[in-house]
Design brief:
Blueprint (H helix, E strand, L loop, with lengths): L1 H11 L1 H5 L5 E2 L7 E3 L2 E3 L1 E5 L12 H10 L4 E5 L28 E7 L6 E8 L1 H16 L3 E7 L5 H4 L30 H15 L6 E6 L9 H15 L8 E7 L13 E5 L5 H4 L7 E6 L7 H13 L4 E5 L24 H15 L15 E2 L12 E7 L4 E8 L16 E6 L2 E8 L6 E8 L2 E6 L7 E7 L3
Parallel strand pairs: 4-13, 5-8, 8-9, 9-10, 10-11, 11-12, 12-13
Antiparallel strand pairs: 1-2, 2-3, 6-7, 14-15, 15-16, 16-21, 17-20, 18-19, 18-21
Helix pairs in contact: 6-7, 9-10
């Protein structure tokens, strides 16, 4: 039966995805996802969001690599925003296409004069080649079970980005967008751009409705560049209204803040709360009660070493998050298999080895069983810091997911890192004091770098139990199950 289903999946193409339910939140625990009948998390390590808008980027090679790496998430920008070469000190930036290699939802006009080469844009006409490329990208991702975060807008951080935007009046023939960059994403000061933005949202949402492997993010980092919350809510309403009469209704995400923030009254159509450079476990903990998926969908500015980002991923997921997407600078034009050797000045990292380590995390959480006799799924796990009878030694921190005294997933990582994101603490064994229920417990210590495992089993009379780790080289995870074999 499995082979028959697989053959159908491989040959059916878009028509198969049209019959499948889209990515949803898990009904048993809305902090996790359901995709094609399976509960899971989203773990990615992807390029800098230009896969579609940059015509020189070979996204087929890129998505094939993500699939081979065992990862299932990528972000892509719509084309309403791009960057100049050298922006944010990024080498080989995929969001900075070469002259005349930039494609957007809007067609080029016959009038010359776009700031980065070629003709100006006509905001009243769509570019069929763009939508063909966009749908091919999402379809290629669907074949590999990769979820696409379709990011619709991005603020203009400075004049250098606004200078390149098709929405800037200097770059279009429609006489709209004669405004400051900080007024573009507002309801009342956008200089005629709001109807243009609404039409773009409706067009993209309609064109992609048949796919099951995506969700829509309103705006990347809306806490910069004058983006108003009223405008964000308007776009969320526009997405929902467009899909109301269509076969599928996709999840919508809102990018909340850098690091952490408490969300007090989320828009009812928002299902995913995304953060950048998250500070787990606080980011998750202060919003866990909202019963939504919580994501860390951009990393960086913590050095170029693998450890700091691997640790961020493990801490975030084991704090109760369900989406982690690393910004991987090893993917560039000409290096779509993720082998670009970036300079030490790069604002983040990304390597093949790190992607393999992210896969270890994904497998760890998604194959986690609770009480062995019941084989409870991992979605029963919830944040449970009461397990720790006392804090760890000062250089280490612990993050815990638990299943009602029956199973625990624990991650131990360094509190501080070297300037390049590497190890600062010395390798050592660490003793945990855990509040454990009585019973027979078993599990394994797992090295997040290698997936190497060391068994752990004991009978416990109840109360505080001391467990000593194997020597921690950089970090360590523990799977512990009561009643297990």
């Amino acid at each position: 039966m499995k082979i028959k289903w697989l053959l159908l999946f491989l040959v059916a193409g878009p028509s198969f995805y049209a019959s499948a339910a889209p990515l949803m939140l898990c009904s048993d625990n809305p902090h996790y996802f359901v995709f094609r009948g399976r509960n899971g998390v989203l773990i990615g390590s992807g390029e800098h969001y230009g896969a579609v808008l940059n015509l020189d980027f070979d996204f087929k090679k890129y998505l094939k690599q993500l699939g081979a790496d065992g990862l299932n998430h990528t972000r892509t920008f719509s084309g309403a925003y791009c960057e100049p070469l050298g922006a944010f000190n990024i080498a080989s930036n995929t969001l900075a296409p070469a002259a005349s290699r930039y494609v957007t939802p809007w067609a080029r006009s016959p009038v010359a004069g776009y700031a980065n080469g070629g003709n100006k844009f006509d905001l009243d006409r769509w570019d069929p080649a763009y939508f063909a490329r966009l749908k091919e990208f999402v379809n290629e991702a669907a074949r590999r079970r990769v979820i696409v975060e379709m990011n619709l807008f991005c603020p203009f951080y400075g004049e250098e980005q606004w200078r390149l935007s098709p929405m800037n009046a200097a770059n279009n023939v429609n006489q709209v967008g004669k405004v400051a960059r900080t007024n573009v994403y507002t309801l009342d000061k956008s200089g005629g751009l709001l109807p243009v933005q609404d039409k773009m949202v409706q067009k993209i949402v309609s064109e992609l409705n048949s796919f099951d492997n995506l969700y829509f993010e309103i705006c990347n980092e809306p806490y910069f560049g004058g983006v108003t919350i009223e405008w964000q809510h308007h776009i969320a309403d526009s997405i929902a209204a467009t899909e109301r009469s269509l076969p599928k209704q996709h999840l919508i995400s809102q990018n909340i803040a850098n690091h952490k923030a408490k969300v007090s009254s989320p828009h009812p159509m928002i299902s995913i709360l995304n953060f950048h450079y998250a500070a787990p476990p606080e980011t998750v903990g202060m919003n866990y009660g909202l019963q939504r998926a919580i994501g860390d969908n951009e990393t960086g500015f913590r050095g170029t070493k693998d450890l700091v980002y691997r640790s961020e991923a493990w801490e975030f997921i084991l704090a109760g998050g369900s989406l982690f997407s690393h910004l991987d600078y090893s993917f560039t034009v000409g290096h779509e298999q993720g082998d670009f050797v970036y300079p030490a000045s790069q604002p983040g990292g990304g390597t093949r080895e790190l992607r393999r380590q992210f896969r270890i995390l994904k497998n760890f959480i998604e194959t986690f069983a609770g009480q062995a006799s019941e084989r409870q799924p991992f979605v029963r796990l919830k944040p449970d810091f009461a397990l720790l009878a006392e804090p760890l030694p000062s250089v280490w921190s612990a993050t815990v997911l638990g299943d009602a005294s029956r199973a625990y997933a624990i991650y131990i990582g360094p509190k501080k890192f070297a300037k390049d994101g590497g190890m600062q603490a010395r390798p050592e064994k660490v003793t945990l004091r855990l509040n454990l229920a009585a019973g027979k417990w078993s599990g394994a210590w797992i090295d997040p770098r290698t997936a190497g495992a060391t068994g752990e089993s004991f009978d416990h009379a109840g109360g505080v139990k001391e467990l000593t780790t194997p020597e921690i080289q950089e970090d360590m995870a523990l799977r512990l199950v009561r009643g297990g074999k």
